[in-house]
Amino acid sequence: MAVCYISGIGFGPSPTFQYSPNRTIPFSSNQITTTTLPRTKALSCFHHATTSVQPTFSFHCKTKTHFPFRPPWPASNKPTTISSAMSSGYVQEDLPPALDSTSDPPPIFDGTTRLYISYTCPYAQRVWITRNCKGLQDKIKLVPIDLKNRPTWYKENVYPPNKVPALEHNNEVKGESLDLIKYIDSHFEGPSLFPDDPAKKQFADELLSYIDSFYKTVTSSFKGEGTEAGIAFDNIETALTKFEDGPFFLGQFSLVDIAYAPFIERFHPFLLDVKKYDITLGRTKLATWIEEMNKNEGYTQTRCDPKELVESYKKRFMAHL
Ligand SMILES: N[C@@H](CCC(=O)N[C@@H](CS)C(=O)NCC(=O)O)C(=O)O
């Protein structure tokens, strides 16, 4: 088993900000040493780590509650010290229960930054992944809401559109997942998840604009054979060939991957189950992207049980059949 020692990273919004040497790297599953590297080098370490190195260990145990999908520590591997937790790269977060109509509101506008989500919402998931990948678990508190039995205070006192995600920060509440992932990336510490390179920036904007049309093309194909979604996945495959410095949309991992991940997480098992259509067949870049995303713990901690996702999509999209 290979272990990749990645160095402390000079990431961050200001040149003076640095990851503390002993802090975990949010989207890797590798060990950390204390050398400082320039950002570009560190990013290539990430890439190397996510493409060429085996994680130090992996989990195969079942959760009692499969929803959200978050495997517990296997007893034998449970770390006893912070550094052993970091050396596995797996930072287990205890997820709070969803608040419902019987729950009291949190002390809104008390200075705490809160991310209101639903464990099942793909839009909220984008923001949750961003928060995790930037290592902001201690800075942004998750407040899950039960959307089926919503507390009235949510609409009245927190976010009048009554949707998730919403971010309470600096005495304001903002919504819209694509705005929020950019907001978190630029207003909080942690590795930058949006490129500086103009060509990558432009492509990022194109891909973020395409996502609604991607979603509509795929979901409208559910009524037919499913294979009509092929063109949308071909577009994804083509997009993934554009930059060769990594397996992600912009080469390196970015907000674009985060924006697409929750939807591909749903489309992949649903089309396979219901239409017997494997979106990765003949699409090697997409297959690799899925594999690489599934190594990213900032993302995997937010994933839902695929069986539950399929069932929920069946109810939502196949109810007419
Ligand atoms: N465009 C919004 C969509 C958010 C959204 O539709 N969230 C759903 C849950 S997945 C929601 O809160 N629905 C509640 C409702 O519409 O009443 C975004 O990107 O954040």
TrEMBL record:
EC number: 2.5.1.18
Keyword presence, Nucleotide-binding: no
Keywords, sorted A to Z: Detoxification
GO biological process, one term: response to toxic substance
Enzyme superclass (EC): transferase
PROSITE patterns, sorted: GST_NTER
Record-annotated GST N-terminal domain positions: 111-192
Record flagged with keyword Transcription regulation: no
Reactions catalysed, as given in the entry: RX + glutathione = an S-substituted glutathione + a halide anion + H(+)
Gene3D superfamilies: 1.20.1050.10, Glutaredoxin (3.40.30.10)
SUPFAM superfamilies: GST C-terminal domain-like, Thioredoxin-like
GO MF entry, a single one: glutathione transferase activity
Family, similarity comment: Belongs to the GST superfamily. Lambda family.
UniProt cross-references to PANTHER family, sorted A to Z: GLUTATHIONE S-TRANSFERASE L1 (PTHR44328), GLUTATHIONE S-TRANSFERASE L2, CHLOROPLASTIC (PTHR44328:SF11)
Protein name: glutathione transferase
Species lineage: Eukaryota, Viridiplantae, Streptophyta, Embryophyta, Tracheophyta
